[in-house]
Amino acid sequence: MFLFVGLGNPDPKHKNNRHNIGFMIIDNLNKRFNLSKQKPKFKGLLTNGEIDKQKLILVKPLTFMNNSGTCIREIQDYYKIIPKNVFVFHDDLDLDLGKIRCKIGGSSGGHNGIKSIEDAIGPNFYRIRIGIGHPGEKELVDSHVLNDFTIDEIETVNISIKKILDNVHLLMQRDLDNFSSKSNI
User: Fold this and answer.
1) pTM (2 decimals)?
2) Is domain 2-183 annotated with CATH 3.10.290.10?
3) Which pLDDT score is estimated for 108?
4) Which of 14, 19, 90, 111 is catalytic?
């Protein structure tokens, strides 16, 4: 069984924030693959179903970004999901808008949601980083991630999300190189 996690903040005012790109991916996966209705459970909104005959759970943690690990740990413990079957979709300031990189393990890179998950389940889970671009100055980072995508940016983001959905089977096969090359715009 796989666990797909989309990081974001649950307050409706954050819906289209750059920091919520993980939530956007989970919502689009649910829609594309016609998975179950999202239900509140384990401090998150859960969906389950199958993609390519593989069982999976998708979750949007409701704990806010900095405490995402609490939700993930509860799901992991209940369903006995090993860390190498956990895939986390999240924003990355250090990547250009729409660029996608994935890896297993590594550092949190200063991302508090990733740090929380590392603290809860260890570092050996997959990270699918989606670029949101950097505002240029450190002082502008907080407002950048918590502001909505512009109309021009959302077009690029939607293309990236479509490519992720088109190639999600490669993630489940752990074919990161192929996933990355086919998913990048």
Assistant:
1) 0.95
2) no
3) 80
4) 19
